[in-house]
DNA sequence: GCCTCCATGTAATCCGTTACATGATTAA
DNA sequence: TTAATCATGTAACGGATTACATGGAGGC
């Protein structure tokens, strides 16, 4: 055994809402869920095949135009079951792999000339991100109804915004310290 | 090519301070740096060997007791060079893999009975973590001198505390919402 | 006709985890 | 003497990234 294969549950979660092709699923990671999870099509297609062998999902072939065959995947009862079992199971937390933090750890000297430029670069990045997330929230959750119907998604996006804000504040504090 | 191999830089960073065995390096991840990076000895030993082939590090054999041979690794000039080059290079940020957040994303309904127990479990975890980090900070950085001599480390630990505090606050807010 | 996007796959490679395996030293 | 810790390795496997590869649909 090795690793977790949480991607399996992500795909089941996405298929829970509507049937989709592998291509559609892959696209979800470019927007939406991409904020906190990622996967490429080269990982998704083989996994879908294995999941179908395990009867967690099924597919129907759909013909588009003259020749193009696409596979509409859907979740099975068994798939639903293991998805909800996962939801209820305890969550373990990977440690974050933030390269900036890692570098910072190795700067022993408060007077190091490396510090300031590092912080400023990072700050720029996180401020852009923050703006982008705020825009996203306004677009996706413009009404209370939209929030109520995608409650978890809204909470998660709110969390991402909080996190970025916290990160920004911390960087600002650091600049004052040096 | 695949992936980043940042572990290489972590090991160089640790060896920059003092020469150490693979065993010592592996132990660093249990305390100290373990807060935001991890590695097992089974990954470390082969990597050290490769790094030595690349002349980033060297080692001297030390005999302990009658028979035990251990390898004291040290960083070379070349190793120092590529370490500082890495420090100065732009940092890219992996997206966090937080399983709780992932699950939350899939809870569409604000009235779902799953929500409350999930949040409470998570809250317990993060509050423990917060306490633990606070204790750690007090132990490691009891004087200003200690902070000044391990400035980056203190900033990073401060950040971890902020992050946990933010997470806790967010969870508390969520409980009010449901 | 051409470019963009849709759509599906495989191969190579590396990273990271778990498990297997062995033996020495040291302190209770 | 025995248990915990020090010390070093390999093997198997699964996850994730990058690159290679192919072809159809639809709009301009």
TrEMBL record, chains A, B:
Domain of life from the UniProt record: Bacteria
Transcription regulator PadR N-terminal domain residues: 11-81
Gene3D superfamilies tied to this protein: 6.10.140.190, Winged helix-like DNA-binding domain superfamily/Winged helix DNA-binding domain
Matching InterPro entries: Tscrpt_reg_PadR_C, Tscrpt_reg_PadR_N, WH-like_DNA-bd_sf, WH_DNA-bd_sf
Stretches assigned to the Transcription regulator PadR C-terminal domain: 98-177
Pfam family for this entry, one: Vir_act_alpha_C
Protein name, as recorded: Negative regulator of phenolic acid metabolism PadR
Taxonomic path: Bacteria, Bacillati, Bacillota, Bacilli, Lactobacillales
């Amino acid at each position: 055994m090795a690793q977790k294969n949480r991607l399996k549950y992500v795909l089941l979660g996405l298929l829970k809402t509507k049937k989709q092709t592998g291509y559609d699923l892959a696209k979800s990671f470019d927007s939406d869920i991409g904020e906190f999870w990622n996967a490429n099509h080269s990982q998704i297609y083989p996994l879908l095949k294995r999941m179908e062998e395990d009867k967690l999902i099924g597919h129907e072939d759909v013909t588009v135009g003259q020749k193009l065959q696409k596979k509409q995947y859907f979740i099975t009862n068994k798939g639903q079951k293991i998805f909800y079992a996962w939801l209820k199971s305890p969550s373990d937390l990977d440690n974050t792999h933030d390269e900036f933090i890692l570098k910072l750890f190795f700067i022993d000297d408060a007077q190091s000339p490396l510090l300031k430029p590092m912080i400023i670069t990072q700050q720029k990045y996180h401020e852009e991100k923050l703006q982008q997330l705020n825009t996203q929230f306004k677009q996706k959750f413009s009404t209370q109804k939209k929030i109520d119907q995608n409650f978890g998604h809204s909470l998660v996006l709110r969390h991402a915004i909080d996190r970025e804000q916290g990160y920004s504040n911390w960087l600002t504090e650091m600049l004052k310290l040096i």
